[in-house]
Write a structure and sequence with these properties.
The protein has about 90 residues and is an alpha+beta fold. The protein is built from two helices and four strands.
Length: about 90
């Protein structure tokens, strides 16, 4: 498995229809929680003061990461920066 650090910023249009926005947010929650319970998305952290998060995904490879990220309902409205992670030699775990 491979770990990836993903910084995701959501940029919804300010004039988005409230019902459409509510639908997107509900589908986003359901999809991301499914990935979390599967173990593929072990950590997600809100960035205080921003409509953004930092997430750690544990997937087979970059192709699986792309499949998961592009499956997010809010994907068209996101800026995502991905950093592959490697074990640090000083980590005691």
């Amino acid at each position: 498995m491979a770990l990836f650090h993903c910084h995701m910023t959501v940029n919804l249009p300010p004039d988005m229809d409230p019902e459409l926005k509510a639908d997107f947010l509900a589908r986003e929650r359901e999809y991301s929680q499914k990935q979390q319970t599967s173990g593929k998305w072990p950590q997600i952290w809100r960035i205080a003061g921003e409509y953004a998060n930092i997430s750690i995904l544990d997937v087979a490879d970059a192709d699986e990461l792309h499949t998961i990220l592009s499956g997010l309902p809010l994907f068209p409205y996101m800026d995502i920066k991905v950093t592959p992670l490697a074990k640090h030699p000083n980590d005691v775990k």
